[in-house]
Amino acid sequence: MANNYLEFSEVLDQLTEDERRWLEEQLETVFVFGDHEYTAQTLPSDLSEEDADWTGLRVLRDFPDDEGGETDFEFAFYDDPENGQYLWFCANEGGDPGQVGHLVQKFLRQFRRDQCWSLTYATTCSKPRIGEFSGGALFVTADSVELIDAHDIVEQRRVAFRGRALNPNSPKENSA
Questions:
Q1: pTM of the predicted model, to two decimals?
Q2: pLDDT score of 69 more than 80
Q3: Which of 81, 80, 73, 44 is nearest to 56 (CA)?
Q4: Which of 50, 133, 144, 151 has its CA 20 to 30 A from that of 28?
Q5: Rounded to 5 degrees, what are φ and ψ at 11?
Q6: Tens digit of pLDDT for each residue in 124-149?
Q7: What is the residue-wise DSSP string for 111-161?
Q8: Is 66 exposed, middle or buried (0-12, 13-18, 19+ CB in 10 A)?
């Protein structure tokens, strides 16, 4: 039996105090009961975390591919004298770059509308299985989150190549 992995490591850097506070709030675990949201500190004594309608990071409440609030990435805040405050995202064995992109898009909308952010990831396998190795990237702006998969890029090129082979009169791409 083989194990498949999706790994990444990236930072959101040069955070101001306001940006860091906002990110900390978004990355806080919440317990949702109907229309009410609680943290572990604000949960009334007559409610149990286990009975919540939804539990997860606040930022994932509106994540379209949500699977019950499961967080598929790790994170930590750091303060570096040279690079300032930053938020580090990583996945060691499995992760969802889309969840990170969802958070970063909200962040860019709130604080840095004129900037973009990217993350690259690797997909590997514990055995040398054909087609089980790949990778990709995430490109985020305030208006979009684009997930770019290496397999998809290769398939697009394959289709374009077949189209040229079937139509030898079509213009050739410049290879230089």
A1: 0.86
A2: no
A3: 73
A4: 144
A5: -125, 155
A6: 999 999 989 999 999 999 999 999 99
A7: H-TT--EEEEEEEEESS--TT--EEEEEEE-SS-EEEEEHHHHHHHHHHHH
A8: middle
